[in-house]
């Protein structure tokens, strides 16, 4: 290339650049990994309590979470725990000397670096004024080496005093030593004294130690577990596990009532053994003896998802009760009242609305969940009716956008096992209108207008943004061309134009916040958003239009033609080698690596056009 005449400037004759030694030392690694530097060793059992003191200030954050606390972002330290004989262990930071505002968590692992080996954990089971800050952990341990972790909730740090005590565990303090319950033959005089570690169905909510039982329920049957006590006011926590290897619960019920019953359903064609655990809802409760028994009976329609009752659209099933219904840790909602199951079939091009209306002398909130099948872990839709003080009807809407009839499962439940209720359950069909469901949005094409849209057809409200526009939404998909901007306008029109539309731009159908939103400033006004795509490929954007729950109407949705964004663009498509790291050539420094290393200049593996000339 012709470089032309040299520049008319004097050369730089200033001092030479710094040629001192390059820093070739190791990269600063920050605080060390806690597992690599235990603060000491605790040996148990011991003839007297063991006490250690220290501080987490200045330590690193090796363990960001535990099973009982997702936000353990404070500094943490570890101790090696040597167990010489099988024993029960109680570890506590609930002591004088633990900093008042140091919100601790405690956990025990078999292997320090492996979260899956966590055996027990506690967040806030301290007593007295520090109850919400200090930790008391229980576990039953066989001989061996373990790791004790002292951590801080949400960045907390401080000084601690850790005490370690031992006890002789009860015979059924672990799942492996569960005591067998024979249906029809209750076990009396049971106790939580010397119970084992807490459970994890609801971390932090039922931190008392567990004792374990096993029971076999015949095929196509239910088992009704009954807990009772002659005295005392402590709250039961009754959990059901599939087996001793389970990391989640099938059921988790709590109650201070005596007697307390909980139903387990076995819809399979063979007998099945379940693990039960009993604990207290508080680690420092005063326990009194309790009795536990199980009775079995034939499985009735609706008591399990697998034998759901048919709900026919256009019909109402009156007086549906969840008294005696099995509770399950169902997806999508935390309410754990007993569930009854129903199946409903939706014709092609229709939607079904299932509604549960409280009835009876004691009105209870209904909880509705819509499920694709009996094995899913997410809901299609869910709803809770009103408040505990003012229960109302709850409804869910499910579409059929396919080409064959669609059958879904709907469960009806109460908020908790203690609030069983009665409801009328109905199903109604309506033609499916484009855009009523986020999963099947209507298409808005740039340069076109969708006329005579009706926001009153929207079904599901949004709290993601623009919270005053709490009416049902209509959903649209706009494909924005590469490197362009499309302007979208919702314009009220016709006889129902006296309302203020809101436009929301959503990243996904489950988004809890908006990418952008716009609400008309007055009734009859226009809501406008700009949809920008600065990438080299077309981009699908999800938007919704809504009014308020009481005011909505008809509108036109105008999508402008795409406008090219200002700035430079690349004229050619990059070769595949640009993104193919697997077949690329590694570029290494000529010498050893250090924190000031740089690589040599290398040519690009493809050509781009820059100011009209090819460049590599």
Task: Describe, in plain words, how this protein is organized in 3D.
- The model is unreliable at 1-18, 22-30 and 568-572 (pLDDT under 50).
- This protein is 0% helix and 38% strand.
- It has strands at 41-44, 50-55, 77-83, 87-92, 104-109, 118-122, 136-141, 144-152, 159-167, 179-180, 187-190, 211-217, 221-228, 236-241, 251-255, 260-266, 272-280, 290-298, 309-310, 316-321, 339-346, 350-359, 367-371, 381-384, 394-399, 406-413, 422-431, 442-443, 449-454, 474-480, 484-492, 502-506, 516-519, 527-533, 539-546, 554-559, 563-564, 608-610, 613-615.
- It is globular.
- The chain is mainly beta and 616 residues long.
- The protein contains no helices and 39 strands.
- A hairpin with a 2-residue loop joins strand 38 and strand 39 (613-615).
- The two termini are 15 Å apart.
- The strands form nine sheets. It has a five-stranded mixed sheet with strand order 1-3-8-5-6, with no helix packed on it.
